[in-house]
Amino acid sequence: MQEHSRRVRPADLKPPRTLFEKLTALISPEPENRAELLEILTEAQERNLIDADALAMIEGVFQVSDLCARDIMVPLAQMDVIDISRPIDEWIHQVLDTAHSRFPAIDDDPDKIVGVLLAKDLLRYYAGETFELKTMLRPVTYIPESKRLNVLLRDFRANRNHMAMVVDEYGAVAGLITIEDVLEQIVGDIDDEYDSEEEDHVIALDYKGNAKRWRVKGTTTLAQFYEETGELLKEASDRTLGEFVVSHLGEIPHKGDEFDWEELHIEVLRADATEVQLLQIEQIIPEERDSED
Questions:
Q1: SS (H, E, C) 28-88
Q2: Sheet strand arrangement including 258-261
Q3: What is the pLDDT at residue 291?
Q4: Which of 79, 92, 128, 212 has the fewest CB neighbours in a 10 Å radius?
């Protein structure tokens, strides 16, 4: 009977470990927890075995498993919502100004989301086709605030869904979250609706009443911001606005975080696990007080 020959694979030709390698393994055992693993990966990056981007992504993956929806959601107060009970011409400017691809929709009741409107579906309206807005709405996905981001990302992929409403313990909508929000915790900044003006650090927006507004990159220095706007943020220095916001809040902010600083209102439009990427800054106009005779 002829004996069958076994194909030798490259892995079979791996040389046996030397005595020194065996002793090293005894002295430095395999990592037993995440902190030890990250320490090894950091050392690998310092030795150029992996690059800095790869290390940052691995750290982002670990962080995603620790974060939940409430940590990165857009709070209810900052959500851009469409009221379909009003004529399209009354809110289409909001779609154009924000340039989002999806909008939560209400039907006159601000406490009830009736569907998700895709901006691309509005093309049918402007093409003169028969158009019934309510039939264009996509179903709403609801998730609890406590849902882990790694589980949510898996659900987004499985259901081919890109947006979910986040509800609190009482079932009320507390905010929204998108698949892009989750992915940015892993890979960092993703091109989105703000990136068409990538070369500009400070973008002047339409006035809000009498107040000036700007959209500003987190990498903009305080000196640059003052030069572009004439507005001061504590000092005109080479410190970036992102660093200023982190210093003020004491931690890496989440999207939707906001605070007042002297005569300016600052809101975080975009941030990932490592840095502040985009801000909106608005003048605070003091309310006029009636003068007493």
A1: CCCCCCHHHHHHHHHHHHHCCCCCHHHHHHHHHHHHHHHCEHHHHCEEHHHCCCEECCCCH
A2: 202-208, 211-217, 276-283, 264-271, 258-261
A3: 41
A4: 128
One-letter amino acid for residue 291 of the chain: S
Task: Give dist(CA 106, CA 79) in Å, integer.
Answer: 12
Each as own residue / partner, the long-range contacts of residues 157-160 (CB below 8 Å, 24 or more positions apart, any chain) are none
> Torsions phi, psi of 282, nearest 5?
-135, 140
Ranges of beta strands (E only) in 43-198 are 74-75, 82-83, 102-106, 113-118, 142-144, 163-167, 173-178
pLDDT score, position 155: 93
Phi/psi of residue 21, nearest 5 degrees: -65, -35
Chain CA centroid to CA 197, Å = 18
Q: How far is it, in rounded angstroms, from Cα 50 to Cα 57?
A: 11
CB 282 within 8 A of CB 211: yes
Distances (CA, A) of 9 to 2, 13, 198, 292: 22, 7, 50, 93
Cβ contact 213:194 at 8 Å: no
Q: Which residue has the tokens 């093409």?
A: 127
Residue 225 is given by DSSP the state: H
pLDDT tens digits along 133-146: 888 899 999 999 99
Q: Chunked in runs of 10, what are the mean pLDDT values of the chain (293 residues)?
A: 48 56 54 75 79 77 83 86 90 83 90 90 76 86 93 91 92 91 76 50 76 86 86 73 88 82 86 78 68 42
Angle between helices 179-187 and 149-159 in degrees, nearest 10: 120
Say how far apart CA 277 and CA 16 lie, in whole Å: 49
